[in-house]
Design a protein that fits this description.
Layout lengths: L6 E3 L11 H7 L12 E5 L5 H11 L20 H4 L6 E7 L2 E10 L7 E9 L8 H15 L4 E6 L4 H10 L2 E3 L13 E6 L1
Parallel strand pairs: 5-6
Antiparallel strand pairs: 1-2, 2-3, 3-4, 4-5, 6-8, 7-8
């Protein structure tokens, strides 16, 4: 198994990333200026993170109408992410701010696809993690892990309405696909992407 590194990111001043009072109120976090934003810490998931990640997934997915059959919110692994991503060729990371888990993301082999294809999985963030570079940092960490695990391509599924996520995917180099790959069991998704690693 490859060595996993921790990534700590200090946020540079940027007035465009200042949380609004409305977002801060929703997220129970005081609004801060960009220069006051603390560092973000990305690390491998631990068993003690399972409850936090399950709560994040169950809070974020309904924001985008991703409930019911065909969505990752109903995957059994949501309650035991550490165990699920301890399998061979899998990696899952959490991102912390002020020692509180505010999001996560991972990679695993894409079921029903060639062995060189992984899937970017369960990359979700609380509102306080959005707009401050957490998604870009997590994406880079997951893709680094995918390469280290020997994958050559990375697939992901999302849905219409997750516009900020789709912009991140496209900025990262993911290309839209006309149809799904593999067998994720997520029939509720309607946008598909692939990236050559």
């Amino acid at each position: 198994m490859p060595t996993v590194r921790r990534t700590i990111l200090a946020r540079p001043p940027n007035p465009l990333v200042t949380p609004t009072p409305e977002i801060a109120a929703i997220d129970n976090v005081p609004a801060t200026t960009a220069t006051e934003l603390p560092a973000l810490d990305i690390r491998p998931i631990q068993p003690g993170d399972d409850a936090a990640m399950a709560a994040i997934i169950r809070a974020v997915m309904p924001e985008f109408g991703a409930t019911g059959d065909g969505f990752a919110i109903n995957d059994p692994e949501v309650d035991w992410m550490h165990r699920a991503y301890s399998e061979p060729r899998c990696a899952y990371f959490v991102i912390e701010r002020d020692a509180i888990v505010i999001g996560g993301g991972g990679v695993a082999p894409l079921i029903g696809a060639d062995a060189d294809v992984c899937e970017l999985r369960k990359m979700y963030f609380l509102p306080r993690a959005r707009g401050i570079g957490a998604g870009q940092a997590m994406m880079a960490r997951c893709l680094d892990a995918a390469r280290a695990l020997g994958f050559k391509r990375c697939y992901l599924e999302t849905l219409h309405g997750m516009d900020a996520a789709m912009k991140l995917y496209e900025r990262t180099g993911f290309k839209p696909l006309p149809a799904p790959m593999g067998d994720t069991g997520h029939g509720g998704c309607n946008r598909f992407y692939l990236l050559a690693l």
